[in-house]
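Our platform keeps sequence and structure together, in a single record for each protein. Such a record has a labelled line for the sequence and another for the backbone structure tokens. This encoding replaces a full spatial description with a residue-level series of whole-number codes. Below, we set out a record of this kind in full and without editing:
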Amino acid sequence: MTLTFLFFDFRVLLILFIIGCIGLSIAKIPFRKILIVFSVIFTFSLLNSVMILLITPTHGSELTESYTAFLHVGYATITYETLFYAATLSLKYFTLLPFTLLFIYTTDPSEFVSNLSKLGIHYKITYAINIALRYIPDIQSEYKIIKHAQEARGAAFEKGEASLWVRMKNRVLIFWPLIIHSLERIDTVSNAMDLRGFGKKDKRTWFYTSKAKREDFIALFAGIFIFIVAVYLKLNVFQNFWYPF
């Protein structure tokens, strides 16, 4: 996942995306769970690309120092370089998707945060991470509930029911009640923790603990090695935005 933030090269991101998809197939994560997150990322990526093309239509040309006109839109001219920049940025978002899903669905939150606390990270931070990981499935369930409620009111979400723009707009409108309900849930949990005196003591124990195994150390050193190689490639090979034309 960290490598995705390092690079802005379409070739590297495509390789990472393929590796992530292979990992998803090996982990056998249900396709429906992947599809929900994919639809959210697709909607966000599409809207983000449209905003880039409308607000900064020549940004890609500024990065590549070349200018190839593609389309005239009112006051500005969208270039092929900016189109490829938007495509690369969208691929960057999609590359994060498989690695994020792998982390969420293959990691036990309690064991993960207990091991983080062993590294010296304060338990308030680790507990916040624990709650965040546990509430991700709940957010997905809330999304489904709101979506079904809107469908009962006649809102279109599926292909063939309405145009792509209408379906995208309906999905975006789901986010508002979802955000409001999530904030209410955060306030409820925060008040409950305050009533129980959370944070008064400097240390706390964890119900779930695990000891590091040989495989864990192998994975750790392999990850460090890959990260060092990636930093070297970023500084010396894939330094800037790549444009093939």
